[in-house]
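pinging the channel bc i need a second pair of eyes. not urgent but kinda urgent?? the chain im working w is below, pasted from the shared doc
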Amino acid sequence: MNVQVTAPAVAYDPHYDPLVSEGPGHNRDYAPTYWIATAGEPPETDGPIVGDTDADVAIIGSGYTGLACAIFLAREYGIKATILEANRVAWGCSTRNGGQAQNAAGRLTHSQWIARWGVDVARRMHAEIEDGFATFEELVRQSPIDCKPQSGGHLYIAHRQRRLEKIAAESKVLNDVFGTTTRVLSREEVRRDFVADAEAVGAIHEPLGIGVHPAKLAFGYLKMARDLGARVHPASPVLHIEPRGGAFLLKTPGGTVKARAVAIATGAYTSLGLTPALHGRCMPILSNSIVTRPLTAAELEATGFRTKQVITDTRTLRFYYRLLPDNRVQIGSRSAITGADATHPKHLQLLIEGLNRKFPTLRGIEIDYSWWGWVDVSHDMMPRIFRPDPKQALVYALGYGGNGVSYSAQAGRRMAQMIAGKTFSGYDLPIFTSPLPGHPFAPFRRLGQRMLYGWYHLRDEAA
């Protein structure tokens, strides 16, 4: 396979902001995450686009969704896609997340599904998400790069008694209506069997949940896609999409790609003006993450980590954390409102204080890694895999709301099926038949976000 050499990357921009910047950049280096520092060299790519070229399918974005789409196009339909990435491969969400793969997509609970769509549709949505988790597990098993999966489930820790009562009621809905096997745990059971989180008053244990090394997962997808014949072009931002004569012209700095079909998988890093179909339809939200130095044996005993399962708490601005394979603690949460404010020390301090509240014995521990990234949140809190115009072969998959590690594999698969003209079980579900909703006050969303964050904090910390 012809491999081109990519010029040295441009420095990482910590202030990039999807609602302000013209685009995510051109050949920018990775964010300084623990994952990139420990993943090893990325697999080879096909270098930037140089000159004009043709493609059956052009995929914009080389994260989990775009790479999975290429894998399924090649494996199931013999279609070899061309992936266009603005910066380095999997530069956005896919190398900045917390590595928590849960049986979820979007931000709504199953009870909210029932209220919105009724029981029958909610049950079919549940089946779709479960099938998506199985799709994800299959790719993890087949990956040529070990992403260090930590299986066993997901622990949902209640940080207040009233929150325990709420999630216990949701657990009953899950078990009675959807046939799951979630368990309600007391504070004592959490400490005995899982972790000594000082805030925990109880928890729900969900059987489906896997922790992964995000960058190794992305690099495994990359190698799988290229081994199947996909072409992957970093440093090739799509500046404009022009429908023409039943095809699409995608302009990049190095040349134009003419494609029969286009799949957009850009997450929160979707360029302003990329396509009118996505204008104002996602709200990019910053999420911060830190990783400590490795814990000593005494610290492990004091923190009571008896599991390496993925863990979240019940705050609206939730903390998500886990013990990594090398005995470091990773913890993340929401942070700045704007990219301009992302480097302010108070956002790092918020995570450190959260870590200290949960594990007082770790107060003062060295923080070896700190980073942030943008999360694509839809205005109705649910993702979409959607074809905006039935006359045009353009589809997008966006709006995971921070729950895209596992479902992105299924989203890529669904995009591949749509592009190939195939139907599938659940094809008439709302996430496939309706667009990402717009927002009537889109220019003022950040003002509302700032006020909501203050209210969420007061509500989350109330006794």
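so Residues 39 and 130 are 28 Å apart (CA to CA). and Residues 119-142 form the longest helix (24 residues). — does that match what u expected or am i reading it wrong
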